[in-house]
Design a protein that fits this description.
The complex is a heterodimer of chains A (772) and B (147).
Chain A lengths: L2 H28 L5 H20 L3 H18 L10 H19 L8 H9 L32 H22 L23 E7 L12 H6 L6 E7 L17 E8 L3 H7 L9 E5 L22 H14 L15 H7 L8 H6 L6 H12 L5 H26 L3 H29 L1 E2 L1 H4 L2 H12 L3 E6 L4 E2 L1 H22 L3 H6 L6 E10 L2 E8 L6 H10 L11 H6 L22 H10 L3 E7 L3 E9 L4 E9 L2 E6 L3 E6 L5 E3 L5 E5 L2 E7 H5 L9 E6 L5 E6 L1 E9 L13 E6 L5 E5 L1 H9 L5 H6 L3
Helix pairs in contact in A: 1-2, 1-4, 2-3, 2-6, 3-4, 3-5, 4-5, 9-10, 9-12, 13-14, 16-17, 17-21
Chain B lengths: L1 E12 L8 E6 L2 E6 L3 E6 L13 E7 L2 E6 L1 H4 L11 E6 L17 E7 L2 E6 L1 H19 L1
Parallel strand pairs in B: 1-6, 3-9
Antiparallel strand pairs in B: 1-2, 1-7, 2-3, 4-7, 5-6, 8-9
Classes of the chains: A alpha+beta (772), B alpha+beta (147).
Chain lengths: 772, 147
C-alpha cells in the first residue's frame, strides 16, 4: 500500500474512534449532562475529523463537519446554553458525519444533507438571551486535542495538514491570526482598533512543545484563538528550527512572540488557550504593570520522548502530593521535573475529563494512569494478531505431539523430560491465554452502533425510546465481536417494533411516554452474557399461541405453560406484528437470531412479563478460536465433541437398549427414552467399530441423545480450524482441529450429525471404504 | 487451494508450440500435466482424515502447517479406482479457483484441457478445477460404463 493510502486508512480508523467519542459525548449531553468537558470533547472529535478530512481532500466531509463544528462551538463559547442545545439534531448530524466518512472511505458519492446543514446554521442564530456562563474557567489544566489513541498513527496525518500550515505561518505569521480561512473561526469579537484601545499591553511567548502537530493543533489554531483586534504584532521565532536535512515535518519548532493590547484578564487568556495549549507552552507577561504570571516552564524540552511515561507519572504524582501547581516545577529541588510535567500535564485522556476538572492544577493520579495507559498502547493490525494466534495454535499442537513422544521414552529419561513437558504445557497454555487477551476487545465496538439504530428506528416507528448501555467495556474475543452485531440488531429491532408501545399507548397504560431499552453485557461463568431489556408490553401470548396453532406449530388442544409460549417467539415463521413493516415483522427475526447464536455455541432465551416488558438474554462463549473438547475414537477415526455438548458418559453394556420397529435404537437414561446413534454408522468411520461407550449429549433444542463410540481418548483444548476455507461444509462436523500426532480430527456438531443420521439414505461405509 | 495425488515421476518441460511450463506426473501408466503456476508445493505421502459422505474422489483432509486442506484422489477422478498409497506416491499442493460448473454438456474428456506431445509421451493437461468439482461424478460415469 502506498504511504498516503496507508495514512488515509489510519485516518478512517481514527474517525471511527472519534465518531464513537462524538456520539457518546452528545448522548451524555442529551441525557442531561452539563459538563462542559463533554462539549469540548465532542467539539474536539469533530474538529479532528475535519482536520484529517481536509488533509485528504474529502471536501463534502470538511464542509459538513465545519458547519457542525461551528454550531458546537456556540455551545463551547456559551453563546448557546447547553440545556437549550438541540442534541437530537446534533446526534443526527453525527450520524450524517458517519455516513460521509464511510462514503469517503469507500470512494462513494456522499449524500448531501442540506436539511441538516440548514438546521445547524440556525443554531445560535435564534434570539437567545446571552448566557451568563462565564468563559471556560481559566486555570483549568488545558486540554489539548488528544485524539483517541493518537500515539502511534496520526503523526503523518497531522503532518500533512500542518506542513501547509507551517509554510503559511512562516510566510505570513503576522497576518495569521487575523486570517479566517473558514476552518478555525474562533470568536474574534473585540470591537475597538488596537491603537487607541483600552487595556493593558501583554506579551505572550508561545512555545509549543515539539509534539504540537501530533496533537492535531497548528499555530493557526493557537493564534486564531486570540481576539484578532487585540493583536498588535506577531513574530515567529524560527531559531529553534533544526537544519533542513534533519528536520522532521511532524515536529513543531516554531516559537511565537505576540504583543497584545487587551482587556482580557490572565484567566481569560488562559481560557483562550484552554483547548490548544498546555500551561507550560505559553507565558503571559503584563508589561506595564509588571505583573508577571508565575513563570511557566517555557517549553517542553526535546528530550521528553526519552522520558519514560512511568517516570513522568511518578514525578507528577509527587507534584500532586505536594499540592503543587505546575509552577512548582521551577523550584530548585524538583528542577529535573519540567520535562515529565510537560509530558504529563497537557494530556488529559479524553476518557477521564471529570478528574481533570476536579483537580485542575495538580494532575491527579488517575490522570497519570490514563496517560500511562495511553502511552503504552499500540495499534496493531488484526492480521498480525491472527498470525500470532495461528502460531500459538501450532505450538499447542507441537507441544501435545511432544507429550505423546515423551510417553514412549524409557522410564529414567521419561521422568525428567515429563517434568519439562509439564512446565512447557503450562507455559504454552499461558501464552495462549495472553494472545487471546490481546485479541479481546470491549463489546463497545458493537454497542456503539446501537444508539444510531435506536434513533433511526424510533423515527421510523414513531416511538420515543431511550437506550441505556451498560458494561460496554466487557471484553470478548474478536471472533465473537464480529458475530454479535447481527443478533443484537435483531433483538433491538424486535424490542422496538414488537415490545415497546407507541407513546400514546404507553401513557394510557400509565407508563412514561418514553420507552427504555437496556443493553447490558457482563461476564458470567466463562461466557459473555448480553441482555436486551425493554419496558414494553411484553409478549402477546394469546396472539402468539393462536398464530402458532394456525401454523400447525402447536397442536390445537396442546396446553403450554406461559414460559413455553414465550419461547415460541424463536420458532421459524412467526411474527406477531399486525403491520408488516420494513423494520421487522417478516417473521425471520428471532428464529434466525437463535439459529446463528446456537451455531456459535451460544444460547438465547426470553423472559416476558405481560404489560411490564421483555428481556432477551444471549450467552456466548468468549472465543471461537479454541474450544474444550472430548477426543473420542470410533473405528480408525478420531473425533472431537465439544465438552459443552456433553452431559454424561457411561458404558454401553450397562445401559439397556431397545430397538424400535423402524430400526432406531433407544436407550433409557434417567428414566427418559433417549435415541441412540452409533457414531461409526452415522459418520461412516473406517475400520471395525466396537462401541463400548455411550456419550449423552445435548442438542440445541435441549433434547438429549446418546452417541455410541469406541473409546474416549481424552479431554483437551483444541484449536478450531475451518474446513470451509479450503474445502467446504462437512455434514456432521462444524470444523476440524489438528491433534497431537498432526492428523486432522473433525469437531462434531451434534445437531448437524443428527440431521445427517436422519437423511442417511446412502450407506456411508461403501463410499469411503473405496479410499481405504 | 487443494491437493492432487499422483505418482512420483516428475519432469518440468516446456512444450514448444505454446510457451507454457508444465509439471508432469504419472497416474498409473498415463502421463498428466498441470500448469506450473498452480503448483504450490509437492510433498511426500501423508495420512489423511476421511470426510463423512464425501464424493469418492475426495480422499480426506490433512494438516499442512496448520491449514486444513482437502486431498483429491486423481486416480479415482479419472475412473481408475482408489489409489493404494505407497511411499512413492506424492501429494501435489495446488492453488485452484473452483468456479461453478459451466452449463455445458461435458464429454468424456471433460477433465482434460488438451494434449501435448512430449518426447514420446502424450501428456494430458488436466483441468484441475473440473477434477475437484466433479471428478467424482466423472468417475461414476466411467465406472458405470466399465461395468
Amino acid at each position: 500500500m502506498d504511504p498516503l493510502a496507508e495514512l488515509k486508512q489510519t485516518f478512517f480508523q481514527e474517525c471511527e474512534e472519534l465518531l464513537g467519542a462524538l456520539e457518546q459525548k452528545l448522548q451524555a449531553l442529551d441525557e442531561g449532562s452539563t459538563d462542559s468537558e463533554d462539549v469540548n470533547a465532542a467539539f474536539r472529535a469533530i474538529h479532528s475529523i475535519k482536520g484529517g478530512a481536509g488533509a485528504f481532500g474529502c471536501t463534502e466531509l470538511v464542509g459538513f463537519a465545519h458547519v457542525f463544528e461551528a454550531s458546537l462551538d456556540h455551545l463551547r463559547s456559551g453563546r448557546v446554553a447547553v440545556e437549550d442545545a438541540p442534541f437530537t439534531l446534533f446526534l443526527r448530524c453525527a450520524d450524517a458525519v458517519a455516513d460521509l466518512v464511510s462514503a469517503a472511505r469507500n470512494d462513494e458519492p456522499a449524500t448531501e444533507r442540506p436539511d441538516l446543514l440548514a438546521a445547524l446554521e440556525q443554531v445560535g442564530k435564534e434570539p437567545q438571551a446571552p448566557v451568563a456562563a462565564p468563559p471556560p474557567p481559566a486555570p483549568v489544566a488545558p486540554e489539548p486535542v488528544a485524539p483517541a489513541a493518537n500515539n502511534d498513527a496520526p503523526i503523518g496525518i497531522a503532518a500533512l495538514g500542518n506542513l501547509l500550515a507551517m509554510a503559511e505561518a512562516k510566510t505570513a505569521a503576522p497576518a495569521a491570526a487575523a486570517s479566517d480561512d473558514g476552518w478555525d473561526d474562533e470568536p474574534a469579537a473585540a470591537p475597538a482598533p488596537p491603537s487607541n484601545q483600552p487595556g493593558r499591553d501583554v506579551h505572550l511567548r508561545i512555545a509549543p512543545e515539539q509534539r504540537l502537530f501530533r496533537r492535531v493543533i497548528e499555530p493557526r489554531v493557537v493564534l486564531g484563538s486570540l481576539p484578532a483586534d487585540d493583536i498588535v504584532s506577531i513574530r515567529c521565532d524560527l531559531s529553534q528550527v533544526p537544519p533542513l536535512e534533519s528536520i522532521d515535518v511532524s515536529d513543531c519548532w516554531m516559537r511565537f512572540d505576540v504583543d497584545l493590547r487587551t482587556e482580557l484578564s490572565v484567566e481569560d487568556l488562559h481560557g483562550r488557550f484552554d483547548f490548544s495549549l498546555a500551561n507550560e507552552e505559553f507565558e503571559i507577561n503584563f508589561l506595564e504593570e509588571a505583573v508577571t504570571e508565575a513563570p511557566q516552564v517555557a517549553e517542553a524540552p526535546a528530550a521528553e520522548l526519552e522520558v519514560s511515561s512511568a517516570v513522568a507519572a511518578d514525578l507528577s504524582a509527587i507534584l500532586a502530593k505536594l499540592g503543587a501547581a505546575p509552577e512548582a516545577a521551577n523550584e530548585p529541588d524538583i528542577q529535573p521535573a519540567p520535562a515529565p510535567v510537560a509530558v504529563a500535564a497537557p494530556v488529559v485522556a479524553v476518557e477521564a475529563p471529570a478528574v481533570a476538572r476536579a483537580a485542575p492544577r495538580a494532575p491527579a493520579a488517575p490522570d497519570n494512569a490514563a496517560r500511562q495507559r495511553q502511552a503504552v498502547s499500540v495499534r496493531v493490525d488484526l492480521d498480525r494478531i491472527d498470525k500470532l494466534m495461528n502460531l500459538v495454535g501450532e505450538i499447542v499442537i507441537t507441544q501435545s505431539m511432544l507429550v505423546e513422544c515423551v510417553r514412549s521414552l524409557p522410564y529414567d529419561v521419561h521422568a525428567k523430560t515429563a517434568e519439562g513437558m509439564l512446565t512447557l504445557s503450562r507455559q504454552t497454555r499461558e501464552l495462549q491465554d495472553h494472545v487471546m487477551a490481546v485479541r479481546a476487545q470491549p463489546v463497545k465496538a458493537v454497542f456503539q452502533r446501537m444508539p444510531r439504530l435506536v434513533r433511526e428506528l424510533a423515527q421510523t416507528l414513531g416511538k420515543e425510546v431511550r437506550l441505556v448501555l451498560e458494561g460496554e467495556n466487557t471484553e470478548v474475543d474478536k471472533t465473537i465481536i464480529e458475530e454479535l452485531a447481527d443478533p443484537l440488531t435483531h433483538m433491538i429491532r424486535n424490542s422496538m417494533d414488537h415490545g415497546l408501545e407507541t407513546p400514546d399507548d404507553r401513557v394510557e397504560a400509565g407508563k412514561p411516554r418514553e420507552g427504555t431499552i437496556k443493553l447490558v453485557a457482563e461476564h458470567r461463568a466463562g461466557r459473555i452474557v448480553i441482555s436486551v431489556t425493554d419496558d414494553g408490553r411484553g409478549i402477546g401470548r394469546d396472539r402468539l399461541l393462536a398464530k402458532a396453532r394456525s401454523r400447525g406449530l402447536v397442536g390445537a388442544d396442546e396446553k403450554l405453560a406461559p414460559e413455553e409460549i414465550d419461547q415460541l417467539i424463536f420458532a421459524a415463521g412467526l411474527s406477531t406484528a399486525e403491520v408488516v413493516s420494513d423494520v421487522s415483522g417478516r417473521g425471520v427475526g428471532m428464529d434466525v437470531v437463535r439459529r446463528n447464536v446456537e451455531s456459535l455455541g451460544g444460547r438465547i432465551s426470553v423472559d416476558s412479563e405481560p404489560g411490564r416488558g421483555c428481556k432477551f438474554t444471549l450467552a456466548l462463549p468468549l472465543t471461537l478460536a479454541v474450544l474444550e473438547g472430548m477426543v473420542i475414537r470410533c473405528g480408525d477415526d478420531r473425533y472431537v465433541i465439544p465438552i459443552a455438548s456433553v452431559i454424561e458418559t457411561q458404558h454401553l453394556a450397562s445401559t439397556p437398549i431397545e430397538r424400535l420397529p423402524f430400526g432406531q435404537e433407544v436407550l433409557r437414561w434417567r428414566g427418559e427414552v433417549t435415541p441412540l446413534y452409533r457414531l461409526g454408522d452415522v459418520m461412516g468411520s473406517m475400520g471395525k467399530t466396537n462401541e463400548n461407550i455411550v456419550i449423552i449429549a445435548e442438542t440445541e433444542r435441549g433434547n438429549n441423545v446418546g452417541i455410541a463410540v469406541d473409546e474416549i481418548v481424552g479431554q483437551q483444548q483444541v484449536v478450531v480450524k475451518s474446513l470451509e476455507a479450503n474445502y467446504g461444509a462437512v455434514n456432521g462436523a462444524s470444523a476440524a482441529t489438528i491433534l497431537g500426532d498432526g492428523l486432522v480430527a473433525l469437531i462434531l456438531d451434534i445437531d448437524s450429525m443428527l440431521r445427517l443420521a436422519a437423511s442417511g439414505g446412502r450407506n456411508p461405509q461403501s463410499d469411503l471404504k473405496m479410499a481405504g | 487451494m487443494s491437493l492432487q495425488l499422483g505418482e512420483k515421476h516428475f519432469s518440468s518441460a516446456q512444450p514448444e508450440a505454446a510457451a507454457r511450463r508444465i509439471v508432469t506426473f504419472k497416474v498409473g501408466d498415463r502421463t498428466f500435466g498441470i500448469d506450473v503456476g498452480m503448483v504450490r508445493e509437492i510433498k511426500g505421502w501423508q495420512a489423511t482424515t476421511p470426510l463423512p459422505h464425501a464424493a469418492p474422489h475426495v480422499r480426506g483432509v490433512l494438516n499442512l502447517r496448520g491449514v486444513i486442506l482437502a486431498v483429491y484422489d486423481l486416480r479415482t477422478a479419472i475412473g481408475l479406482g482408489a489409489t493404494d498409497a505407497t511411499a512413492t506416491h506424492v501429494i501435489v499442493v495446488v492453488d485452484v479457483e473452483v468456479r461453478p460448473a459451466p452449463d455445458l454438456e461435458r464429454d468424456e474428456h471433460g477433465l482434460i484441457e488438451g494434449l501435448v506431445l512430449l518426447d514420446t509421451d502424450i501428456v494430458a493437461l488436466l483441468d484441475l478445477a473440473a477434477v475437484i468439482r466433479d471428478g467424482g461424478a466423472e468417475a461414476q460415469i466411467k465406472t458405470s460404463r466399465a461395468a
